[in-house]
From TrEMBL:
<dbReference type="Pfam" id="PF13808">
    <property type="entry name" value="DDE_Tnp_1_assoc"/>
</dbReference>
<dbReference type="GO" id="GO:0003677">
    <property type="term" value="F:DNA binding"/>
</dbReference>
<dbReference type="InterPro" id="IPR032806">
    <property type="entry name" value="YbfD_N"/>
</dbReference>
<dbReference type="Pfam" id="PF01609">
    <property type="entry name" value="DDE_Tnp_1"/>
</dbReference>
<dbReference type="InterPro" id="IPR002559">
    <property type="entry name" value="Transposase_11"/>
</dbReference>
<dbReference type="GO" id="GO:0004803">
    <property type="term" value="F:transposase activity"/>
</dbReference>
<protein>
    <recommendedName>
        <fullName>ISAs1 family transposase</fullName>
    </recommendedName>
</protein>
<dbReference type="InterPro" id="IPR051698">
    <property type="entry name" value="Transposase_11-like"/>
</dbReference>
<feature type="domain" description="H repeat-associated protein N-terminal">
    <location>
        <begin position="243"/>
        <end position="334"/>
    </location>
</feature>
<dbReference type="GO" id="GO:0006313">
    <property type="term" value="P:DNA transposition"/>
</dbReference>
<dbReference type="InterPro" id="IPR047647">
    <property type="entry name" value="ISAs1_transpos"/>
</dbReference>
<dbReference type="InterPro" id="IPR025639">
    <property type="entry name" value="DruA"/>
</dbReference>
<feature type="domain" description="Transposase IS4-like">
    <location>
        <begin position="346"/>
        <end position="437"/>
    </location>
</feature>
<dbReference type="Pfam" id="PF14236">
    <property type="entry name" value="DruA"/>
</dbReference>
Length: 456
């Protein structure tokens, strides 16, 4: 018997009916054509899926292509493809790639999310013939649309409704069954008690070898995703860091907040140390990958309706960064660095000023340890002033007796030299350019008149 999508239904244990196409049906099979749908056909395509496919939904995710199989201009079958599933244990074991490889090479996997034989259009071997035609051009079309090819195709089959004959006839491999859960949102799954069979097919002989390679050759490496910055800090370590921020004054009123200030600051620190750009959007994306254990360690509260702890959104980070005093934040960050790395004892201090990107002209003068790159402190340049007096104040905060100060030509000033030596006990190395002609000439004359070393 058939379901309303035109695909064969069966009850487990039924005897298989083998049907052969008659001459007219064979003529149709030989004359089948497949093509991508056009934009003006989108509504019609989705209507067929919504009305005739058993899942009743045409929604696709990520990269996607839609095909129509036709004979003499009449639609017979529809196939939808979209991005591969994020994590499937049986598929990942079959491929043999690591978690890190999966995260950056998932674009090379496509999922056949919808396959529909239209009502009244079915005939023996139509499904397998349509699949064969689609597989012949899928990789090329994907490369044309998204700039990279495909190496593996996957699909789910409900064994209560279908045998998966079209996939088997097209060289697909049955890898196993799903657990019978659907992902409702991040880290939250709902049981639907309908496990699906998982089929997969390599699209070229060396597909699995390429996906498991330490380094993919060109042009495949161009299609890899940029490695995503993830939080590798263990829950116990997050608790330890959070203790340092615990005494930070909360600018908010009331007490019924989902996210603690100390937890948000800990998260910002971890994201920054991991190389995240630290805009509120980047921070929210970074937070989305945290586990429930990590979120709990940060002191965040669970949602009473779901029982899960939600990750903070962009607005949470935006309000925090806007309202917390910069001096307070820097004090806590430096204390945290001392906790993690031990007290700073720089022998080479580098001071430089930069205008912050997308800050409407805000300038910062920052100090770093020349040997390790460790952050030592920063101060903002107030309006109607410049970097020079700010640098003098900054060296007082981070100087170590006997250290060497390195600055660019802008800071080659008498006052900074005196402050460094007389007040901080720091030697200096300054650059002198042509915009200070008198000093440059005096230094040149001094060095030329001494053929041997001399005391500064």
């Amino acid at each position: 018997m058939r379901d309303n999508s035109g695909a064969f239904l069966f009850t487990p244990g039924m005897k298989k009916n083998i049907q052969m196409p008659d001459s007219r049906e064979q003529q149709i099979l030989e004359g089948l054509e497949i093509r991508l749908t056009r934009k003006d056909e989108q509504d019609c395509y989705e209507q067929f899926i919504d009305e005739q496919h058993y899942l009743k939904s045409a929604q696709l995710v990520g990269e996607q292509l839609r095909y129509v199989v036709e004979y003499e201009g009449k639609w017979l079958a529809l196939l939808s493809w979209n991005a591969g599933s994020y994590h499937l244990a049986d598929r990942d074991k079959w491929i043999g790639w690591s978690d890190a490889q999966r995260r950056i090479r998932l674009p090379f996997v496509a999922n056949n999310s919808r396959f529909l034989i239209l009502e009244g259009k079915g005939c023996p071997n139509l499904a397998s013939r349509a699949m064969k035609l689609c597989m012949q051009r899928l990789g090329h079309d994907w490369n044309e649309a998204y700039g990279h090819g495909l190496l593996v195709a996957e699909s789910f089959v409900d064994p209560q409704l279908f045998r998966g004959t079209a996939y088997k006839a097209s060289g697909w491999t049955l890898l196993g069954e799903t657990k019978g859960y659907a992902r409702a949102r991040k880290e939250y799954y709902t049981e639907h008690n309908s496990p699906k069979q998982l089929y997969a097919r390599a699209l070229r002989p060396d597909a699995l070898e390429l996906l498991c390679a330490d380094q993919m050759p060109e042009p495949w490496c161009d299609g890899e995703l940029e490695p995503k910055v993830r939080c590798r800090t263990k829950s116990a370590e997050l608790c330890s860091i959070r203790d340092i921020f615990e005494e930070t004054e909360d600018y908010r009123t009331g007490a019924n907040w989902s996210y603690t200030i100390s937890g948000l600051l800990t998260l910002i620190l971890c994201a920054t140390l991991a190389g995240m750009a630290s805009g509120q959007r980047d921070l929210a994306e970074y937070a989305q990958d945290l586990s429930q254990s990590q979120l709990r360690a940060l002191g965040f509260r669970r949602n009473r309706k779901t029982g899960k702890i939600p990750a903070p959104s962009e607005t949470s980070f935006f309000r925090l960064l806007k309202n917390i005093p910069p001096d307070t934040l820097q004090e806590k960050l430096l204390a945290c660095l001392d906790h993690l790395l031990g007290p700073a004892a720089p022998r080479l201090i580098i001071i430089d000023g930069k205008e912050l990107r997308s800050s409407q002209g805000l300038q910062l003068v920052s100090a770093f340890c020349g040997e390790t790159g460790r952050f030592l402190g920063a101060q903002a340049v107030e309006k109607k002033t410049n970097e020079i007096p700010v640098a003098r104040e900054l060296i007082k905060e981070c100087a170590e007796d006997g250290a060497m100060l390195l600055v660019d030509a802008l800071h080659s000033q008498n006052k900074l030299a005196r402050t460094s030596v007389q007040e901080c006990g720091v030697d200096y190395f300054m650059t002198v350019k042509k915009n200070q002609p008198a000093l440059r000439e005096r230094l040149k004359t001094t060095f030329e008149s001494h053929s041997e070393s001399f005391s500064p």
